[in-house]
Amino acid sequence: MSRSIAALHVAKKQLGLDDETYRAKLSAITGKTSAKDMSEAERQEVLTVFRNEGFQPKAVEHRPDGRKKLTGKFAPKLQALWIAAWNLGLVNNRDDAALLAFVKRQTGIDHTRFLTYGGDASKAIEALKGWMAREADVDWRENTFGPDWQTGAGYKIAAAQWRNLNGNGADFLGWVQNQIGRPVTSQPPTTAEWIAIMNTLGERIRARKAGA
Length: 212
What we know:
By secondary structure, this protein is an all-alpha fold. The protein has nine helices and no strands. The chain has three domains: about 5-50; about 75-135, no CATH class; about 150-210, no CATH class. Helix 5 (about 95-105) crosses helix 6 (about 120-135).
């Protein structure tokens, strides 16, 4: 599905058009009742009319480095897992295009913005989590005995990174406390701090991998 066709579907919903009214408008503007039968120029003509009637396309969000953010309900979770896999040394290309190719292989769906059903998204999410468990020793099991902060993905991924770098004997929590400058028992790491910790350990993993 092209971006312009997807935008027309969004406009139809946003403007509250039933199917009959929508197709009548398409016909009045282009002489065609289906967006698939239109040229790209004709679709843009229809979108211009819809904008004049109140359609407001969602602004494209960008990251701090200027790149576009992936869109879709499940995109943030998939992106977070993809970057985690990169920081674990499993993924060689952290770019969104590589993630989209992975999603396509798992679901047959071309883009995260078209992932509207949880069942489809879970195929990609669980495939990523399973890969991390098998190849990088990420323990996704529920921890019913430890503190709540040890149940989060940040802790589980960072702990796996630490084991891969240092084994089980080294003091992971002591190192984390040095990174955040306070005891984890009094104030656990925030989400942003876990991200910084995972990025730091990821740099070490990739450096070791490059030197292997």
